[in-house]
């Protein structure tokens, strides 16, 4: 990248995920930064950035939403080579059904990358009891979406799908705010479709 250059990469994909048992889904592999992944039956994604020029900045924002028997293995690599480089990684996982979501992140600061700075955050929301989240990171569960919370909203005429979608949007808003405006309606639709029947 040239000094002062800026790259913004956004992707949304809607690929056949298979039936409720995970059969017949498409295998998707993309190595290519804002991404919202609602995925395929099995997805691997590892965008990487090399911050070679002095004062260069790299940012990676990701949301991976899995349901039924989907498997997502996502993450990113930031390699700091130049002086005063900065990187930021924010990854969110939303797991429903019997799905599995693994996040892998690598930040590498090379010897000449004086004064490099990096922040990396990865959080997951587990919507069902049978999901697997084998990410190599420290996990703190602050609260499970409970039947009493859903009941509270249902008493006020708000169905559980809308409540769940609102909670997911709040959880992911920092990333959704980075998406181009054209993706707004599409994100709403995809999350609504993906969460159908996912409360368990």
Automatic annotation (TrEMBL):
Signal peptide: none annotated. SUPFAM superfamilies: Stabilizer of iron transporter SufD. Residues 32-133 form the SUF system FeS cluster assembly SufBD core domain. Coiled coil: none annotated. It holds the Pfam family SUFBD_core. GO terms for biological process: iron-sulfur cluster assembly. Belongs to the iron-sulfur cluster assembly SufBD family. This is SUF system FeS cluster assembly SufBD core domain-containing protein.
């Amino acid at each position: 990248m040239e000094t002062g250059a800026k790259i913004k990469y956004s992707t949304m994909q809607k690929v056949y995920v298979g039936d409720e048992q995970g059969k017949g889904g498409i295998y998707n592999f993309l190595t290519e930064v804002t991404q919202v992944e609602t995925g395929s039956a099995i997805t691997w994604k590892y965008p990487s950035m090399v911050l070679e020029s002095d004062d260069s900045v790299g940012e990676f924002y990701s949301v991976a939403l899995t349901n039924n028997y989907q498997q997502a293995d996502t993450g990113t690599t930031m390699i700091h080579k130049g002086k005063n480089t900065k990187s930021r990684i924010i990854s969110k996982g939303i797991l429903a059904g019997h799905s599995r979501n693994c996040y892998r992140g690598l930040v590498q600061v090379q010897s000449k990358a004086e004064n490099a700075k990096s922040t990396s955050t990865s959080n997951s929301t587990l919507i069902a009891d049978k999901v697997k989240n084998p990410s190599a990171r420290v996990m703190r569960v602050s609260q499970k979406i409970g039947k009493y919370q859903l009941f509270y909203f249902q008493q006020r005429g708000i169905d559980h799908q809308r409540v769940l979608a609102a909670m997911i949007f709040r959880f992911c808003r920092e990333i959704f705010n980075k998406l181009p405006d054209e993706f707004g309606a599409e994100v709403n639709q995809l999350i609504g479709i993906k969460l159908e029947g996912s409360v368990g």
